[in-house]
Please model this.
Amino acid sequence: IADTFLGFTLLEGMLLGAIVASTDAPAVFGLLRARSMGLKGNLKPLIEFESGSNDPMAVLLTLGLIQLIGNPATTGLDLALLFTRQIVLGAVFGVALGWLAAKLINGLRLGYDGSYPVLTIAVVLLTYGATAALGGSGFLAVYIAGLVLGNQSFIHRRSLIQFHDGLAWLMQIGMFLVLGLLVFPSQLPGVAGEGLLVAVALA
Model:
């Protein structure tokens, strides 16, 4: 379909799918927490897990497909090694740094309560940066670290969760603002057909 209507190759079509297919995790989390949906059993945490975990997978697929397109000599073994390294390192660093973050927050006695959000942001940046520098998935590491930290007890837990919820919405607004700045109205007529076709397929 992509080759027929959009002029993409199979790999380019798969790349487009990997880019646009991931769920808007902050929006899903916000809807599940803000509305009484009456979800029973473990359905709510399952939906949250699916929504949060498919972003790292979308990044992995995007990286793998870009590598395939840019270097056609890439083999299936190369991709398998890339995926394995990204997932394993992301999971290991996520668990380790999430556990360490809880110990750090409880162990440090900062003189000003407002310093704790700064500390948690530093932990997020360290988790992403260290994992990515070693070839792992920084997105997956940060997500798993958040899960590990969120399931432990630490001081200022309520205020820190509220702070990061607000920060997540702010980052989402900023992301869409930046994406909007990349759009040039004069170029829209030329890509309107393809864009509408992709939008219909997503809907």
Notes: Residues 76-107 form the longest helix (32 residues).
